[in-house]
Amino acid sequence: MSKAIPHGRREEDYLKTLYMLSRERNVIRVRDLSRALGVRPSSAVEYIEKLAKKGLVVHRKGEYIELTPQGIKEGERLYKRYEALMRFLKEILMLPEDIAAEDACYIEHGLHDLTLERIRLFLEFLDIHLKEKGKINFLERLREYYVKGKVPESCT
User: Fold this and answer.
1) Domain boundaries, the chain
2) pTM score of the predicted model
């Protein structure tokens, strides 16, 4: 596992959001970023300048924002962390999407890389070893356990 560059929560949110936006569109504008993050455009510009000084983005006033190769690498790493948590929270804990998104955004900043890797591997293990039918049965039984608070008869 490669060593990640330490970032603060705000920086991680910016990098992850820039990476997500770059996957959706050809160009990223300040207004796109500020909308996605729920901040004023002036705040977004101020923070983009900090990221540019770190060599993570390229941005000239009035132009588009572009992630550098290092910015892409870090943004992708952060996005994969978020994606794994979202999948775990939605599929395994069966939380509604809005709660899963809020919690994933909160949790992703504090979890150790090894913890996230184990969550990813757990999900991969389920995919491989339960295949489609077994996974569906497993998740149906898990849902029943969540609702009723006791092990389904089909499991005992």
Assistant:
1) 7-111, 112-156
2) 0.79
For the 7-111 domain, the top CATH level (class) is mainly alpha
Q: Which amino acid is at 126?
A: L
Q: Report the C-alpha gap between 146 and 41 in whole angstroms.
A: 43
Tokens of 90: 């939605």
Q: Tokens at residue 26, please?
A: 């050809």
CA atoms lying within 13 Å on the CB side of residue 127: 9
Element (H, E) at 58: strand 57-59
Give 87-120 pLDDT, tens digit per residue: 999 999 999 999 999 999 889 888 898 999 999 9
User: Residues near 15 by Cβ (< 8 Å), separated by ≥ 6?
Assistant: 7, 51, 56, 67, 71, 74, 75, 78
* Tally of CB atoms within 10 A around 144: 16
Say which DSSP state 108 is in.
T
Helices (H), 38-90: 41-53, 69-87
CB-based contacts of 81: which residues, under 8 Å, 6+ apart? 108, 111, 116
